[in-house]
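Teaching note: in complex prediction, the entire set of molecules is handled at once rather than each chain in isolation. The prompt given to students was simply: 'Predict the structure of this complex.' The entities are:
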Amino acid sequence: MASVKRFSPLPGFGLAMGYTLVYLTLVVLIPLTAVGTKTLTMGLDAFWAAVSSPRVVASYQLSFGASLLAAAINVVFGLIFAWVLVRYRFPGKGLIDALVDLPFALPTAVAGIALATIHSENGPVGKLLEPWGIEIAYTPNGVLLALVFIGLPFVVRTVQPVLADLEKEVEEAAAGLGASRGQTFLRIILPHIGPALLTGFAMAFARAVGEYGSVIFIAGNVPMVSEITPLLIITKLEQYDYAGATAVASVMLVFSFVLLLIINGLQGWMHHRYARGA
Amino acid sequence: MKLKSLLAGLLAGALLAGSAVAADVSLLNVSYDPTREFYKEFDDAFAKHWKAKAGDTAIIRQSHGGSGKQARAVIEGLQADVVTLALAYDIDAIADAGLIPSEWQKRLPHNSSPYTSTIVFLVRKGNPKGIRDWNDLVKSGVSIVTPNPKTSGGARWNYLAAWAYALEQPGGNEGKAKEFVGQLYRNVKVLDSGARGSTTTFVERGIGDVLLAWENEAYLSLKEAGADKLEIVTPSLSILAEPPVTIIDRVVDKRGTRKVGQAYLEYLYSPEGQELAARHFYRPTDAQVAAKYSKQFVKTRLITVEKVFGGWRNAQKVHFSDGGIFDQIFVPGGKR
Amino acid sequence: MSTSIALHAGSLERAETASTREPAWAKVVLISVALSFFAVFLLLPLGTVFAEALRKGWGAYLEALVNRDAWDAIRLTLITAAIAVPLNLVFGVAAAWSIAKFEFRGKRLLITFIDLPFSVSPVISGLIYVLLFGAQGWFGPWLQEHDIQIIFAVPGIVLATIFVTFPFVARELIPLMEAQGSEEEEAAVVLGASGWQVFWHITLPNIKWGLLYGVILCNARAMGEFGAVSVVSGHIRGQTNTMPLYVEILYNEYNYAAAFAVASLLALLAIVTLALKTLVERQTRRQLQEIAATSESET
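The expected output is the structure of the full assembly:
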């Protein structure tokens, strides 16, 4: 890493910084404070009633539960993807590498209708699963599926560069000392990529909790069963229960902000850890 | 600087594309969910009519969604010249917000409802679950698709029809009705925010055994999906649904569209408008057109909201307001 | 929070030696798992979009795209992106300039604030503007008095889009400019160049690929955003319908072929985005390697 910077002789700090702060304040900070002030006008009892009603709590359980599970699934498959892309050569690799980011680039509504079509009872995958009694579309499974889809690139793209930078010599040394491949993976590789996996997990989780577009087409949206928290906010908005919608939104916002701080902390840790090798 | 020219090109392209089309007069009709196909055709017919009558080109824009949601969007500032919603209460709410006079419903014939409809059941071909009437819906193993009464108008008609049925059963009372409707909603598999979302779920996605649907929506589905896939079941009792229409005074006065807005709504009552409504399976109010299409509509006993529920304001307050009976039914049910 | 890392990814691979290789069966299993997951989760949805779009033939496909409603949706999407992307571009450059080239207290906090829109649910991104500009919002009564429409009109859609795409360019440029340091710029200043000259002739050429990368991602999100614009749109055909919202409307009208036809345009946009991104990544990696090479030769 670069050493601590000295005083910069470059011009433009005032202008650039001023513009940055004004734009940030206008576009992000003021609108977000609207959530806070609206919540404050509610009074504690009304706020608590709005954020803790059974239907809202059920939506937290689904949103957070499915997001955690999806992020965990993504850690497993994301690691396999990253591993395969970094370590092996095989036909179609370039294509896979480029398309891993598809969930980033594909508008969520498009992903939503495509996933719903594929996994409904008449769809190509839904048809295959139906005889086994597995239903995906319009059940909580559908929520999970959509969240796995959108979260995949986060883990792959966080782990991939770290895995690529891993010193081969270390593995070779471990192998030379008689460690099996499995031992090398568990004792050497996994601890090394651990922070990256954790960061990818946290990012996938953060994205999944707030996701709306890809989920609503496939979820079924039944209160208490398959209704995610962002949809509940929309439903409350559509009923023009502004205070209720805002209260639930404020809970999500606080959660997102904490998660963001954690992610930034994790990234700082990664930076610190991997800087030596880079 | 390839980058700069690329950006400049993008910007120029977007601005060019942005030059708007000129129009003589435009109307925004904010409507509920299953009227999409009807108003698409009606708008074209009206544009022709208006061109011939006033010489102006009328461009009519549509916004569709759950009726309650749409009403609230208008209250929130959606610039609707006319609204054509699923039930009177939603327009009452607009009146309460001061956008239209409170006696709006007296301004046009038939309580401002140019067409009526009712609620029927749409089931899979052959009716494999043997659904004949409301009491078949509460049996275990029957899965129902209906929209959310909080946001959808049709869903509120569904709910009230079920309630009225339960009241009429031997020994029927408020408590029994609440239990019956609660049981019914525990069989609901998907609760979309509008009638159209529910139809899509049932027809295209193949979810559920029965869809509680607007009569016109059910016939439309039959037409779209084919009569070899679906069947319509008319219950022994249903509800007379009167979807009303009105101009939004505050908007038309500001935009200077009162005349064309008024003409638009009156055209709904004209023989041409009524004919179009009937062809889209709405029950016409014009006696002649009604007689012509009488075979199309099954006869069943239709109760009214006035008689059974003491009007929409009361029904809304008791059943659909926050903490009302619908909320009580859905909350303690828990996971199914 | 994600894209800066994605920048350095790509087909980084390395030679393998016998002592560190998995057994052949493990390799086969891992590759097959990845390939099948890829096929089911990524390729199949993409293929489905095009297959469904063309199910009723090319005639129906073109018909779905060449009509007034579709054009209006495409136009609104382009306008929205044409406003949101340049604004966030200018912001991104200004933010990166002040954060990467100068030291000040509260830098980490500032970066966290810039990241904030990434972690906010799209639904909330729409909600905040309703709270500000809706009839019952902070500025609602004032706006109504002056007859200004923001919610349920194009300005609301643009604002929500600006919010959700806010961090893209800044997040791309900050690490890049930090890695590049400011020696070149400082030398130019010492030689008497003005601030703008330094920026146009030194900084901009240095960051152009990173900038382009950020713009591509920002644009993709701006054109594809659904949740946030859905909250503020009002869903008026021909007026406040962006392409993703139009897809939803068509989908709700049984018009599957048309819904997927419009969706296929958005899917094409995604493919072009990914292709451009891959190209730009290659360029950036080259540039980063050059930086690494020069900094190594200096030490």
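Point out the following to students. Residues 36-54 of chain B form the longest helix (19 residues). The two ends of chain B are 62 Å apart (CA to CA).
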